[in-house]
From TrEMBL:
Species classification: Bacteria, Pseudomonadati, Pseudomonadota, Gammaproteobacteria, Pseudomonadales
Cited Pfam families: AMP-binding
Protein name per its UniProtKB record: Acyl-CoA synthetase
Species for this entry: Pseudomonas cedrina subsp. cedrina
InterPro entries in UniProt: AMP-dep_synth/lig_dom, ANL_N_sf
Domain named AMP-dependent synthetase/ligase: residues: 11-303
């Protein structure tokens, strides 16, 4: 059984190597990588990081939106036994960064780099605007992959995989993430043929616990939209079977549909209200589905949805009623407290020590 996230990646590459693991959109075109290709890419990135001096117990700071490059470099750092801290580039991270003084950084673009006053080895994804900036020591992500053989994959399950900085610092170990993934996959009946959309940066611990780790454990397909602004269009195009959201993101989707509804008092609005009301009549349920609910599911990109997940607080009554009428009842997964996560971390290390 895999003990770390990169080992879970290698397990998928060994058992389902030709299956599509990841898709991402560039200039309107979807590109694919299967599990074998993905494991090879991560191994090459790990070799490249190693040549830059990244070692076991080092931390990699990533300031980027949800991009496949950020995901691959995350796994490469963990491959070497390091941890990863992810920050949302849309947030003002300058105060936090002054305290962190990161030794290894991946920055999405110039704006992300400008948040850094002190930094060590720094890689970038988008080089626009950097030519005339005093950034001579920057390394392009595209130049990182080394021709050297990938180093041995780290195996310590009690090592921290992610470090999150919010009100307090939260560490999540490989053991915690994989144990949680096994629980979610079993309880939510997640399958290898499911599809999910990674529309938000992995800067929140819920994304790591309930999307990234289950993806590596179950082996479903993870899709990256072209940009945050295109996520709704890309979701409609893909029709994912697994959706992970928060109270706010579900409310945003409900609001986006309600803004398109016909005005109250019109015939079309009456049809909408009629189709969304519960009824014991099989004929009315059938008509309501094809006239109202199915078109709304298509607009939401949820016509194939099988596993709706909710992290954090419950849906508002309005959102719950809207999605409930569509037959969507998100399973709620509460984030653990920092104290509990810290306790889990210490227990995990103690159990690991006893097995030596």
């Amino acid at each position: 059984m895999p003990q770390t996230l990169p080992q879970a990646l290698l397990h998928q590459a060994h058992t389902r190597g030709s299956a599509i693991a990841l898709r991402y959109k560039r200039l309107g075109i979807w590109h694919e990588r299967n599990w074998s290709e993905l494991a090879h890419d991560v191994g090459r990135l790990a070799a490249g990081l190693s040549t830059l001096g990244f070692e076991r117990d080092a931390n990699l700071l990533i300031i980027s939106q949800a991009r496949p490059e950020a995901l691959l470099l995350t796994l490469a750092a963990q491959w070497l036994g390091g941890s990863v801290t992810l920050l949302d580039p849309d947030d003002d991270n300058r105060g936090l960064l002054e305290n962190l003084k990161p030794g290894f950084v991946l920055a999405e673009n110039l704006e992300a780099l400008q948040q850094l006053r002190e930094r060590g080895v720094t890689l970038y994804l988008d080089g626009r605007g950097l030519k005339h900036a005093p950034q001579a020591d920057l390394i392009a992500y595209a130049d990182l992959s080394a021709d050297a053989v990938a180093p041995a994959c780290a195996t310590e399950s009690s090592a921290p995989a992610f470090v999150f900085h919010a009100q307090t610092t939260l560490q999540l170990t490989h053991a915690q993430l994989l144990a949680g993934a096994r629980t979610l996959v079993a309880q939510a009946h997640v399958r290898g043929d499911d599809e999910a959309l990674a529309a938000r940066v992995f800067a929140a611990s819920g994304q790591a616990r309930y999307l990234l780790a289950p993806w590596l454990h179950a082996g479903f397909r993870l899709n990256f939209p072209e940009a945050l602004a295109t996520r709704d269009t890309d979701r409609r195009e893909l029709g994912p079977t697994l959706v992970l959201g928060t109270r706010e993101s579900y409310a945003r989707l409900a609001q986006s549909v309600q803004e398109r509804l016909p005005l109250p008092g019109t015939f079309s609005h009456g049809v909408y209200r009629w189709g969304m009301q519960p009824t014991p009549s099989p004929l009315r349920r059938w008509l309501g589905h094809w006239l109202v609910r199915r078109p709304l599911l298509d607009v939401l990109g949820m016509s194939r949805l099988r596993v709706p997940l909710l992290v954090g607080p419950a849906l508002s009554p309005q959102s719950a009623a809207f999605f409930g009428a569509l037959g969507i009842h998100p399973g709620n997964w509460q984030e653990p407290s920092t104290r509990q996560a810290s306790t889990d971390h210490l227990l995990s290390r103690a159990l690991h020590a006893r097995t030596l």
